[in-house]
Amino acid sequence: MEKYDAIIIGFGKGGKTLAGKLASVGKKVALIEKSDKMYGGTCINVGCIPSKSLVHHGIIGKAKNLQTFQEKYEWYKKSVREKKQLVESLREKNYAKLNQLPEVTIINGEASFLSEHQIEVLSTTGKKILEGDKIYINTGGTQIQPKIEGIQDNSFVYNSETLMNLEELPEHLSIIGGGYIGLEFASMYAEFGAKVTVFQDGETFVGREDRDIAEAIKEILEAKGVQFILGVSIEKVTAEEKQAVVQYSRQGKTYYQQAEAVLIATGRKANTQGLHVEKAGIQLTKRGAIKVNEKMQTNISHIFAMGDVTGGLQFTYTSLDDYRIIWSQLQGGNYTLEKRRNVPYSVFLTPAYARVGLNETEARKAGYDVKIMKMPTAMIPKAQVLQNTQGLLKAVVDEKTNKILGAMLLCEESYEMINIIKLAMDMDGDYIVLRDQIFTHPTMSEALNDLFSL
Q1: 384, 373 Cβ separation under 8 angstroms
Q2: Which of 3, 13, 6, 37 is nearest to 313 (CA)?
Q3: Is the Cβ–Cβ distance between 16 and 29 less than 8 Å?
């Protein structure tokens, strides 16, 4: 039996960062990763990095003004290959960074608990048992597979990971799921020149956003040719010789939609499959995630969890912040989950959408007297320079205190701008701080002067 100061299950953002930090203080660490294609975690290999690479190439392809589908097809194939090269390069760098540390042992295999301190690892070379003083779970999330007839073993059906490895651009892509992942892929593939249809079971488009923001997003995507079919029930997906057929019902009628590819984008869940956490007595939430306290501890004090497996916000940067919480606890610090504030998120449409804090609907429901500030993206000089003036900016301010409650930015470079607003909110600054800030020109960020002057 091999003994370690720490066993980390999963090579994601939080896990890999913690492994390096523990090694820097002389701790003996075992880092277990099931797949040698996942060094670095979801973001680098099958999530934000490859998808943003394709978003970028899609925008470039559109700027090339490619005319025929064959031209678009060839550009898409080139883009996927370059995406794969980028991912492989980053994966190798992540592996090498930890593999060079004598205190870290990287083990390929599938981990499962035998007890509170013992982990069994199964690999192609056999089985080994590890014992750790502390154990950290960082196994990420996995795709939710809806119960739809015909999607299993259907060669035309993909998830977000497998679709990004498809080198043939589908003429028609059907997306089942109208959440942020589905919308991002809809925007991306529309930029490449595919015809895109998005199916959603609910009647309300992007239900967590204010209606003015949701309608602006929908309008932008529809202008790209994306078709939305809301309030549907997907009955089955049939594989034919050269395409799939999506059978769905709406308002009591049955319809059929043909597509060369069908993307299942119905969300993700915590990846605890095969861990056998019950053998260590680890508690799960009602949704099957690892239950943790404000210190990222499970109910077993020496076992921690971080990232998507805890069922919280599914962002690589929150996984990194989970690491910060754990490291703080190990060092006797006081940073906890309760002290995390104002986590922003971005959806990489074209233009991108970014948000932090409360929207108008949420703020009013919470009882705030609010001041709403809005401006169209077209008012921003840099948006004119970038030749994309679609969208709008919106901020919600507390009328009584002048504190920023939230912001929603639908514009180019919103994913950078939102961090400035988050910082102002974290520092408890009045909106006047951004209204009177000196920004360089021409930039998208200088629009915050105008937004907070309205």
Answers
A1: no
A2: 13
A3: no
In whole angstroms, give the CA distance from residue 211 to residue 199. 19
Q: How many domains does the chain have?
A: 3
Whether 261 is covered by a domain: the verdict is: yes
Of 57, 172, 302, 441, which is the active-site residue?
441
CATH assignment of the domain containing 213: 3.50.50.60
Q: Is 172 a catalytic residue?
A: no
Q: Give the residue from 236, 266, 296 where a domain finishes.
A: 266
Is residue 273 a contact partner of residue 289, using CB atoms and an 8 Å limit? no
Residue 379 pLDDT greater than 90, yes or no: yes
Say if residues 407 and 418 touch (Cβ distance below 8 Å): yes
Nearest CA to 92 out of 11, 8, 10 is that of 11
What is the distance between the alpha carbons of residues 377 and 369, in angstroms, rounded to a whole number? 26
What is the model's pLDDT at position 62?
Answer: 85
Residue 150 lies in a domain: no
Residues 332 and 366 in one domain: no
pLDDT score at 1: 80
State the DSSP code for 399: T
CA–CA–CA angle 158, 161, 163 (5° rounding): 45
- For residue 107, what are the domain limits? 2-141+269-339
- The domain boundary, picked from 339, 361, 393, lies at 339
